[in-house]
Design brief:
Blueprint lengths: L5 H24 L1 H96 L2
């Protein structure tokens, strides 16, 4: 076997470069490759659309949940306020009833005392 000299190595390198360029040109001009690239791009675009739709759906669901939460909190707040007012009104009624009872009891005691006094005065007058 003969050892290749510089000229042989350069010609082999040039031939390899030409062959590589021919393969690259052939691949670039291949219509099937263009179709594969186009199909891959379409798949990527469809994936991006699906991702965008899912994100929009999630965003809409989060907004709806936030609106429901706000409505629920508002309703709970209104219910607590109504309950508080009802408790205050009930307490005010109980206080008014208690005041009325106390006034009635005081009036009854006064009437009993007045009757006793009247009875004692009557006894004094009759001399019994």
């Amino acid at each position: 076997m003969r050892t290749p000299n510089l000229a042989d190595r350069l010609s082999m390198a040039n031939a390899a470069k030409k062959a590589q360029l021919e393969r690259a040109k052939h691949m670039a001009e291949d219509p099937e490759r263009a179709q594969r690239i186009k199909a891959r791009d379409e798949i990527g675009a469809a994936r991006n659309r699906r991702i965008t739709e899912r994100e929009a759906t999630r965003r809409a669901a989060r907004e709806q949940e936030a609106a429901e939460l706000a409505a629920r909190q508002a309703a709970e707040g209104a219910a607590r306020e109504a309950e508080r007012k009802a408790r205050e009104e009930a307490q005010a009624r109980r206080l008014a009833e208690q005041t009325a009872r106390e006034a009635a009891e005081a009036a009854e005691r006064e009437a009993m005392l007045a009757a006793r006094r009247a009875g004692r005065k009557k006894k004094k007058r009759t001399g019994r």
